[in-house]
Design goal:
The chain is of the alpha+beta class and 465 residues long. The chain is 35% helix and 16% strand. A nine-stranded antiparallel β-sheet has the order 1-2-3-4-7-11-10-8-9, with helices on both faces. A hairpin with a 5-residue loop joins strand 3 and strand 4.
Length: 465
């Protein structure tokens, strides 16, 4: 298992929720951040701003319980290789709590009743390195317009930014929103936190890439409308995304979205900014304001469906697809059931009977053999499959004294070797062994005659003498 996956498992096991550490008493750093975020709205604020910030001091019992749970989890052997990294994560967790704050701002003469500002500190673990990022912020709120389809805005490396439709549901990592809960969904902090995390999901970024590549960046009415607003695009392009801050290692990032909420007939607008400079608050709010205003002017669902034939929907590329109502689907199901072949059915008694037969291993009607029957079959198979009785010699018959063939009474000669009955077999002569010849004697020195050369040498010696 990779170290990144182990890190994710450890973080999920803690079940850390920043919402448990929010208090109304802000630190000096949190007050400074809230003041910078609300200064641009000073003339439009009506009523009191509700500010919340993370605090360990006022939630010491909860934090100690979290640390105790973390120490117990660290004892697991699987974290041995990254134990030091995980301890550093727990230290940075304190900083994450202290640098998290939000403000609910009541406004007038703007598309929202309330808007929310928040910081987005992150603890990142990539390439065996732990990093703490505290530069990201976000403005979000709900407009009283229902755009009908989730729309995202993002950037692709070496390409112009674009709006793209999102099909399906966002990957909220298991978070389920209770639609029955009254009030603006933008004030449910865990829900918004899950949405921000979903913006980095591969599922979300892949749909931006598909709309860019497969549909040539046009075809969806809402996205086409937003892409035609040059002032909006100019403000959106100024946003510093995760791609600009190098937080995102891939080539695609999502920095804004418009999420319809059917239960309230509203749309949640969110814009995130990851710049380091002081002007990030004004850039983010400007893009948030213009996007909210533009979404209030997009074609409504009723206007879109007028141009479409009944029972049809269109893809982002303009292709018409047929759609069925619940009643039509029920009728189709009944038709298919009626067209099914006549398949036999069994009662409970029959099924119980079949079950008992299967349990005994001998279905009803199957032939069973006894041990004697099996012995008889074995005897038959020895005879080549024929029922041939085994032959036994007659005690009155005699055998030929020469070849051993069985002789019936009255026979005088053996039909095989023609030996007379009762005659003794002729004795076989003993085979003569070959005689061994005596070995040749080597001539002795006395019997060896001298050669001519020796005789000549002897005569020459006698003449000299």
């Amino acid at each position: 298992m990779s170290e990144e996956k182990l890190f994710e498992i450890f973080v999920n096991s803690l079940e850390f929720d920043i919402n448990d550490y929010f208090v109304e008493e802000l630190s000096d750093l949190q007050k400074e951040i809230i003041d910078d975020a609300t200064f641009i709205l000073k003339e439009n604020v009506v009523g009191d701003i509700k500010s919340l910030g993370g605090s360990i001091k006022l939630n010491q019992d909860k934090f100690d319980e979290l640390m105790k749970k973390a120490e117990t989890e660290l004892e697991n052997v699987k974290y041995k290789e990254i134990k030091k990294v995980l301890k550093d994560y727990l230290k940075k967790l304190k900083e994450l709590i202290l640098k998290t704050c939000l403000a609910i701002i009541p406004v007038k003469e703007l598309p929202w009743v309330d808007l929310v500002f928040r910081t987005i500190p992150r603890i990142m673990y990539e390439n065996n390195q732990l990093t703490f990022l505290d530069n990201a912020i976000a403005y979000y709120g709900e407009i009283k317009c229902f755009i009908g389809r989730t729309t995202v805005y993002g950037k692709i490396k070496d390409q112009k930014p674009l709006f793209a439709p999102f099909t399906g549901n966002l990957d909220l990592h298991g978070y389920n929103l209770d639609d029955s809960e009254k009030g603006p969904k933008s004030k449910i902090f865990p829900y918004v936190n899950a949405i921000i995390n979903a913006m980095d999901s591969t599922l979300t970024t892949s749909q931006l890439a598909k709309y860019h590549e497969n549909f040539q960046r046009h075809g969806d009415p809402i996205c086409d409308f937003l892409m035609g607003d040059e002032e909006l695009l100019e403000s959106m392009e100024k946003i510093n995304s995760g791609l600009d801050s190098t937080r995102i290692k891939s080539d695609i990032t999502i920095c804004s979205l418009a999420l319809p909420i059917p239960s309230d007939s509203t749309t949640l607008i969110l814009v995130a900014e990851e710049g380091e400079d002081q002007n990030k608050y004004s850039r983010c709010f400007e893009a948030f304001l213009k996007l909210s205003a533009a979404c209030c002017q997009v074609p409504s669902i009723k206007q879109e469906t007028v141009s479409q034939p009944p029972g049809a929907i269109s893809t982002p590329g303009g292709q018409q697809l047929k759609a069925w109502t619940a009643e039509e689907l029920a009728q189709e199901a009944q038709k298919r059931m009626a067209a099914q072949p006549n398949i036999p059915a069994w009662t409970e008694d029959e099924l119980a009977k079949f079950s008992s037969e299967r349990g005994s291993g001998i279905p009803e009607g199957m032939e069973v053999w006894t041990e004697e029957d099996l012995q008889e079959l074995a005897e038959k198979r020895r005879g080549g499959g024929l029922n041939i009785p085994e032959w036994a010699p007659d005690e009155k018959m005699t055998e030929c004294s020469n070849c051993g063939y069985s002789l019936r009474p009255g026979w005088t000669k053996c039909p095989i070797c023609e030996t007379s009955v009762g005659e003794k077999p002729p004795e076989k002569p003993e085979e003569e062994l070959p005689k061994e010849e005596p070995p040749e004697e080597e001539p002795s020195e006395e019997n060896v005659e001298p050669s001519d050369e020796e005789l000549n040498k002897e005569e020459e010696n006698n003449g000299e003498n």
